[in-house]
Amino acid sequence: MIVRPLATDLSVSPQISTTDVSTLQELGFRSIVCHRPDGEAPNQPSFREIAHAANLAGIQAIYQPVVPGQGLIEEAVVFAALCAELPKPILAYCRTGTRSTTLWAMSRAGNVTSAMARERTQRAESDSATVVPGNKDVQAALVEVVEAEHTVVIVGGGAAGIAVASSLRARDPKMDVAIIDPADTHYYQPGWTLVGAGIFDAADTARTMASCVPPGIHWIKAAVLAFEPDTHAVVIEGGRKVRYQRLVVCPGIKVNWHGVEGLVETLGRNGVTSNYRFDLAPYTADLVKRMRGGTALFTQPPMPIKCAGAPQKAMYLSCDTWRRNGVLQSTQVQFFNAGAALFGVPDYVPALMEYVESYGIDLRFGHTLRSIDGSRGRATFERVLADGSTDRVESDFDMIHVVPPQTAPDFVRSSPLADAAGWIDVDRGTLCHTKYEDIYALGDAINAPNAKTAAAARKQAPVVAHNVLASLGRVARIALYDGYGSCPLTVEHGKVVLAEFVYGGKLAPSFPAWLIDSTRPSRLAWFLKERVLPPLYWNGMLKGREWMARPAQVE
């Protein structure tokens, strides 16, 4: 733990752990302010855990979550009030200390000189955030901008970002490419379904980001705060600007854990779990294994979400485990789906319904999870009635697998790149932004009407790589994305319905029907999911090897 003083009674630090709290007590701190939202990273301790440790140590803990670049002036005012009221000395923390330092600088903008702010900020070894246009006092309190420039800048180091970078380098080994991403770890998220079923170990789905960034690619380890497309720049932590000739945006999706009241406070205990988080998928497997009857709920929020089949994958594998353990008959399974259909491509519904009926699953369409009371084991849903009105219904549970609502990241939704719904506005074929010809996007944050899956990103990455080079005049013709998506629906241990489709829900099987009938459960498809797709991801997609993913080109 690194503690850096900003003022006599205020210090900042990067993310702290529960074990650090006792050290803070020894150092004499009487208050802790958390500026990091829960769920920013899969392995970060929640504020609830920090607050519990602080309470035992006699330290007051306050939760003031700050999304990078969002509402900083308002949050600075709140932080100033907290600094005046809380017992002192105070420690404020976030991921790196940047946000806490920034709020201090902004709250003091009218009382300290630029030199003082710069000196203290540098002494804290923590940059300030982006300049807020139009506020000269705030600008004076922030550090100076440092700029970098690259031919291609990629925002996001997930599956899509690494794949695009590798595809670019495979096409042009001398291409100047940079990836901007603050994460230390890269995850194979499609594997979390099997972690939640006790088939994969969670550790096998994670590798260091450093080992995944392709050789020769510049890695800028920072969070993006804003886009300035008119000046061809991206603003990152510290107010620094990274300029580009071409920009590729693929920051993933925001899983809004705070979108369900009471969820964050009870995740990972009281039978409340989710395979959408690395650290919780093993808890799913443990809950399912220990289940000896009772009520199990599975939820699916309104679309769009990452991997629309994942909520029911968890349900089917859980039911199969309970059937194998002889407890399915004594387990009431309910699927609360905010939508009106089991799956978005009708051709796959008959096979899925056979399993729904076999497992005795009670389907509840038009139900959106609104709140959870973990201590009471009760979930509250908003139900849409036949006349379009809504009411609230409650259901008790012994176990609940939650999929929270999802949106584009905040810095995307508030940017010039977003459409009215907050998603990056792209041409569905070329994946070029509809307004800015030097910007491309792919992955979960775009508004193209395709499934948000790793399989989609695997097909999109070569299209974007080719079109970026075409826009720079380095290759002829353009490439088109056909909307391909794939969802290996794990309906039982050893069998998968391999859903593959393109725009419009048209089936697009990769294999002949005599080998794998994509509309029926298949053992060979399970082998593909369990044994083939993970190495294809790590050693193919992330390495720029476009096996079965070569893009179609047009004049």
Automatic annotation (TrEMBL):
GO terms for biological process: sulfide oxidation, using sulfide:quinone oxidoreductase. Residues 4-110 form the Beta-lactamase hydrolase-like protein phosphatase-like domain. The keyword Iron-sulfur does not apply. Keywords: FAD, Flavoprotein, Oxidoreductase, Quinone, Transit peptide. Residues 151-270 form the FAD/NAD(P)-binding domain. The keyword Transit peptide applies. Gene3D superfamilies: FAD/NAD(P)-binding domain, Protein tyrosine phosphatase superfamily. It comes from the Bacteria. Pfam families: BLH_phosphatase, Pyr_redox_2. Its cofactor is FAD. GO terms for molecular function: FAD binding; hydrolase activity; quinone binding; sulfide:quinone oxidoreductase activity. This is NAD(FAD)-dependent dehydrogenase. It comes from Caballeronia zhejiangensis. The lineage of its organism: Bacteria, Pseudomonadati, Pseudomonadota, Betaproteobacteria, Burkholderiales.
